[in-house]
Amino acid sequence: MSFSRSTIRRYRASGRKQAAETDRKSFSPDEPLLLHWDGKLLPDVQNTTASRIAIVVTFNGQEKLLGVPKKERETGEAQAEACLEAIKSWNVEKLVKGLVFDTSASNTGLHRGACVRIEDELEQELVWIACRHHVLEIMLSDVFSLICGSTGSPETILFKRFKKQWRSISLNDFIPAPESIFWHEAPMAVRAPFNDLQLMKVLKEYPHEKVAHAAQAAISRHLWYLSEHLIGLSLFDDRIDTETKKNMVQNFQCPKKQDFSRRIVLSDETPISNVASFVTERTLDIFDVLTLDGKERAQLFLSKDPKTWKDDEVFITMRDRAINMKVVNDSAERAIVLIERYNESITQNEDQKQYLLQVVAAHRKKLPTASKAAMMKGYK
Predict the structure, then answer these.
(1) Which whole-number Å values give the CA distances from 290 to 3, 70, 232, 376, in the listed order?
(2) Is it true that domain 12-131+329-378 has CATH number 3.30.420.10?
(3) pTM for the complete prediction?
C-alpha cells in the first residue's frame, strides 16, 4: 500500500467525486422548487477576482445546494446563466416555480435582470419572492443614514464598537420596540402580506416625522408581498378573518392585471388593512408553488366556507407548505459562506471544488451538530 502524498490526494479526489455523484443521483424531488441564488466577488488565480454564484433550491422546508460556479462578471446575465446551467444540470428546471433573491438591480431589472432572463428561458411566469430580510435591511439602512449620516466606509465604526462590547451589554435592560416584530417575523411567509400593510399603518402614525417618511419611502419601493401572486399567502394567515378570506376567494374571479407589477405601489387612498383588494385570478398561481397541480387541488377547500378550512386535509397540507416556504435568502447566503471557507483551500481544481462543496453540504445536513445524538440520527 502506497502512502505517498500524490496517492492520498488521488484517493481523496476520487472519493469526493464518487460521493458527490451519489448525492446527485439520490436527489429526485417530486414537488415544486424555489430557486435561490446570491453572488460575491472572491479571490481567484493570479491575484484576480471572480464572481461566485451560490445556487440553492428549497422545497417544503428543505434545501439543496446545486453548486457555486465561477463567473467572470457579476451581472444579471451571468447570474441567470449560472442558475439555468445548474437547474438543467440537475434536471429540475421543470419543477422551478418561484425565484428567491436579493432586491439588487442585477436581479430585478425589467429588461436585463436575472429574474426576467430566467423566466424567458424557462418560458413560464414564475413567482418572484424578494428576500424579506433584505427588504427590511433597506428600510433600516435608510433610517440609519438619516439619523447618523451616510458613510463611504464598508464598515460602520459604531457597529464595530457595539460588536466588540456585545458580551458586556446587559440584555436585561433591552426593551424591544413594537416595530421589531416585523423583523422577527420576516421568515414567516404566511404573515408577510398582512405584516407589510400593518407596517405601513404603523409608520403613518409614527411620532418622528422624518424617520417615518424615510422608512415609508423605503418600504413603499418594496411591497413585493402585496403582488397578485404573493397576496395569496394571506389565505393561510390565522389573523385574517373569515369574511376577508371569503372576499379573497370571490376576487379570484377578477381578471389578471394587464400591467402586472411584481411590486405594488400604494396610494394614500388604498385601504391599509384590506388584503382582499389585491387578489385576482393570477393569485391562484401561488398554489402551484406549494404543491404540484396546486390550482386544481386548492379548489377542494376554496369551494367550502373558510370556517371549515382548518379541518380540510388539502388546506392543512398547503398551509404547512406555506409556513415552511423560504422567503429569506439565508440558504444562498450560507452557500456563500461555504465557498468563502473552501475557496482557497484543499483544491484549486474547479470540478473538485464543486464536489467538495456538495460533500460538505451533505455532511452538514446529515450531522448538523457535533453531538452523539446527531451522529446516531445521521447514521441510523
Answers:
(1) 52, 31, 11, 32
(2) yes
(3) 0.93
